[in-house]
User: What shape does this take?
Amino acid sequence: EVQLVESGGGLVKPGGSLRLSCAASGFTFNSYSMNWVRQAPGKGLEWVSSISSSSESIYYADSVRGRFTISRDDAKNSLFLQLNSLRAEDTGVYYCARDPSIISGWSYYFDYWGQGALVTVSS
Amino acid sequence: QMTQSPSTLSASIGDRVTITCRASESISHWLAWYQQKPGKAPNLLIYKASNLYSGVPSRFSGSGSGTEFTLTISSLQPDDVATYYCQQYNSYSWMFGQGTKVEIK
Assistant: This one.
């Protein structure tokens, strides 16, 4: 069974940093591109970042580029998101999600999602 | 940009329900639909515009290509109460629609 479990969320002051982790199991993690998607309280979904299976290709939303860094450790079946220079508008639930393609690298949608990690940026 | 409509929808059990997403430029068939219930992660319904994801009831269907796409629920059921999102891919950027909240009348 595919499982994605996020951790590392919490309360942080504006300007602070946080590192989110996503532990993957039930599939060959190193074969799949992975993604982060967030959702502000009571709002819609927002794509944050994506990383290819080889880490060769990395993409960011304009709203986080230069502040957030996505990475992965295939030996530990883990995906990470380093959040720096946090702002109040970064508050929300952060989901890791899998891209289902294992051949071409990308299918450009998300078939499995974690339960989310809550990040609250407030003084 | 993605424009999803309506933002809310109220229909009766058994009604046919349609949600529309419009892209500002052609995205070919790179569009997916998700269902999200309160406090839960989204669930994939449709991928590549018209492909039903495994395990999703057949009352859900997707259509469209280029810039206009629709999600149809052929016969609304109580379990379909949720918020629905479209999601596009274009030029190394993924984007979600604003969401459509579906309620029972």
The two ends of chain A are 40 Å apart (CA to CA).
